[in-house]
Fold these 3 entries.
Entry 1:
Amino acid sequence: MVHSIAASRDCAQISAYLDDTYLEQVDTTVIAVGERDGMSWVAVEDCLFHPQGGGQPADRGWLEDQEIVPVRHHDSGLVVATAAVGGGLPSLAVGERVRARIDLEARMLHAALHTAGHLVEAVGRTQGWEMVGSIHFPGQARIEFQAPDGDARLGDPDGREEVTAVLREGVAAAVADDLPVSARYLPDGRRMVQLDALHAAPCGGTHVRSLGDLAELVLPTVKIKKGRIRVSYSATHRSPR
């Protein structure tokens, strides 16, 4: 239950984190403040902060010098800033100007992992697999596919290593080709992320500019868990060229 809320008449929010993955800092305006379950929150017009969702962790961010945690406010749909553990929020009013910034290094890692996940999905689909789950957290990143009937390669260790080699080859080729990564909105409002002509999927995450920005993309041997193919992976963002 929302105990209190104050908002501007327009209360429109721009998802700046989707417009530019690499935007580190922005001066913006407070459009809403409120309290939920005893916790204060603030929403700004140019939202720099990606909230946790879609398998991607939340950004680490700050309003002025106060560290915050972004979350999706279910009643309004806004992404709002709440206090980090052990911290507080700056005292802000609707209409006040404020500086927002993110931990860009963490953002780049999250973007690399999320983009690499799309790439792993794309190469898995070339094997006739259908994705049924994904997570893009550091140290936990994986794509899960429904295991098809009749693929004998998945039934023994040598076969799984053979399949993994095929996936690694497809991933490496796409990165070497430096395929562009782009996003567009469909008429129904869904945001589609594309890896050139290789793959497209609805997604509200942050992504690198092109696959050549991915570095240290590693795929351990695939595993079979409860009838699912689990493809774990790790990746980082290439240092600026």
Note: Confidence is low (pLDDT under 50) at residues 1-5.
Entry 2:
Amino acid sequence: MQIQGYFDLQFEAVKEAFAALFEDPQERGAALCVQVAGETVVDIWAGMADKDGLQPWHSDTIANLFSCTKPFAAVAALQLVGEGKLELDVPVVRYWPEFAIAGKHRITLRQLLSHQAGLPALRDMLPAEALYDWPAMTAALAAETPWWPLGEGHGYAPITYGWLIGELLRRVEGRGPGEVIVARAAKPLALDFHIGLDDGEFERVANISRGKGNLGDAAAQRLLKVMMSEPTAMSTRSFTNPPSIMTSTNKPEWRRMQQPAANGHGNARSLAGFYSGLLDGRLLESELLDEMTREHSIGLDKTLLTSTRFGLGCMLDQPQLANATYGLGPRAFGHPGAGGSSGFADPERDLAFGFVTNNLGPFVLMDPRAQKLARVLADCL
């Protein structure tokens, strides 16, 4: 497999490990970018971007980053906190009065960002097209009863996070949540990152597909078992209501919508650049970054049925857990995306990491491909 791009010779082993991914015949296309102290030391890509294996992955290929999008939304919200336009510990109803229904009058932005609010899913099934109807989704969430009492643990909100945080951004800023986030977290750093993609960009978006045959680790199998056997369980509903969530990735309407939990589009460069911007203080004041990366939630995740550890809109490292470590330092923070893409920072090494793939693996938290690259990277430093 021919590897395109640039790498510092100190990191040749990382390039070799990246090339080795393509020994798997199912691997399609991927990109990796690493920045150390703001300097790009690895920026490489390879493979195919389209469904039929005819279109090579290019320098400017972008892909759906799934939940790698969530920290971008959190940063926009935290910037508004820094400006006094939002508050972390004031009830959400101050900004969104309709949210007070069904005992939600005490829920705060902090609890939404750290997955403690009890709103990872909607109980009543919605039609598939509701996914693209912002007012319908926010109204449904405003009417929803939390799945557990406030203060009794956390459960990851795979997609509802986008409407919950996005609606606050929309109400405070008066424009679409994707516009808010891109203007605040991507444009200042000149990142090739989008939430709500223009049709003119579609030709450079990688087609996403699922790998076959690999059942993943124990956590993935546990979640899959619940989703197959318990259609009304919270975990199932969180991924399947509306039923179009899991099947829309390559559709034009998915790319166009502004859903800041799951439909950011970008490349490995934009992920690494984002985390460099956090590490060097360009995106957040140090007190707000400390707040974002401080442990808020830890332990058994009521949605994912495995141990998770969250700050505010970011996933924190769990070094002792094979499926929950980024593979570098214990203070690493960032977010994996469904199926393998991953962006994170390791503050101890002043390192920012972005990995993007269009061949989805079956893992719930960290994908072994990104972890392997990070471990090789550690050996090079």
Note: The longest strand covers residues 39-47.
Entry 3:
Amino acid sequence: MNPTLRRVAALLSGLLLAGAVSAQTYPSKPVTLLVPYPAGGLSDVIARTVNNTLSKNMGQPVIVDNLGGASGSIAAQKVLNAPADGQIIFQGSPNELILAPLAISAVKFKSEDFRLVQMIATAQIAFLARKDLPVRNVDEFLDYARKEAAQGRPITYASVGPGSFYHLLGEHLSKTTNIPMTHVPYKGMAPANQDLLGGQVDIFLAPFGKASEELQKQGKLKVLAMLNSERLDSVKDYPAITESKSLKNFTFNIWTGYFVRKDTPEPIVQVIHKAITDSLTDSAVRGGLEANSQLVAKPLSLQAVGKAYADGTAQFRAIAKSINLQPQ
């Protein structure tokens, strides 16, 4: 054999052997589950619903670490700066890994730098409105928004920052209906919800959870619709967006998944994939996610989950392009 080819073959053989050995000992110490938002939000709730069962299935403690900032991209970059050894599992979504690189010029990573190991859950998106907005449903809202815009008073919609999924939804709503609307960005869900409750912003297309339901029951906000294709049992009291006359195709949700660096050795990825997949069958995990209006993900094979991530990346990039999203 050519000496150069012999060295390459030896190197590849060594890498394969190292991967196999690392998988046999992985995990040999606690694993970090990195959440790209502060404690107390929905992302944090999801992580703390899953981590104890995931710890049991991995044979090591899985410790939740919250690191917010820059639409989740600070935490995502931390994963890329760490070794590709599976010791950090990133709890991410299209918000941080697909949209942040498109919206924030300082973000240098690409969606393809990460590998989705397994889906966890899908969040239902609610069409929330301030309590005193003089509308009862989505169609009345559009009539009201059109009249307000014609009088130079465009309605306002909240988001958790420029380029976030919720910003894209608001811009897409404005473009789809041809009604001018004003974007009001916030640094997170909490301040956006606070201003919605205080009447400083008109609407917020946001994940629906127990807190939103309680506020609706107390008359502190309105749920005009769920952006679902049909009424689901968990939110059967609220109309699906498809029940409206004007926005039948405006159906959206956002998923959460667990990621690692793309160059993490395959045997380690397989260990993580099995542990997460087994966790999704646990009744406590499923009950906790469902109690927060999350739709528990159907476990996918590594091949299928890779395709789902690629398809989701293409979908969100297309939406960003349709509204001419520019990095800032």
Note: The mean pLDDT is 91.
